[in-house]
Amino acid sequence: MEKLLTNIVTINATADQAQKILANPVHLLKWVPEIETVNQNEHSFTVTRSQGALNHFEVITVEAVDSRIIYHSRQGRLAYDLAFTLTEADHHLQIQETLFADTAKIGLPVKLIAPIAKHALAINLMNLGRLIEGMTQVSS
User: Fold this and answer.
1) Is 76:61 a contact under the CB 8 Å cutoff?
2) What is the pLDDT tens value at each position of the chain, 140 positions in all?
3) Which end of the chain has fewer CB within 10 Å, C or N?
4) Strand (E) positions, the chain?
5) How many angstroms separate the first and last alpha carbons of the chain?
6) In this structure, what DSSP letter does residue 41 have?
């Protein structure tokens, strides 16, 4: 897997609050607009996206280790790992997402897909931040 990009957002929340959202990919429906369905299986999640997405269908497994949550996506056109690293400081939470992808099999140049993916994931990360902050305000 090749590192393609990194995005960062800082929000008013705790790592625990973010982990609750990220550990359950069913919540993707609330912060990734192109996702149409998320079905939970025994050890994975089946995700269907809109027709224009690079991965219309994929299977995601979740790995949680300390302050990192990693989505491992397989069975789509692009196999990838999306790692979220959570860092708390000064009553804020920094969420860093890093995308690692197996670009050899998709037939598109990395220079073409990296900026498109970076922009799309940055928007999704901002949506995630707003979702976590909104849930934080409700539970306070």
Assistant:
1) no
2) 889 999 999 999 999 999 999 999 999 999 999 999 999 999 999 999 987 778 889 999 999 999 999 999 999 888 999 999 999 998 899 999 999 988 777 777 778 888 888 999 999 999 999 999 988 765 54
3) C
4) 2-11, 35-40, 45-49, 57-65, 68-74, 80-89, 92-101
5) 40
6) -
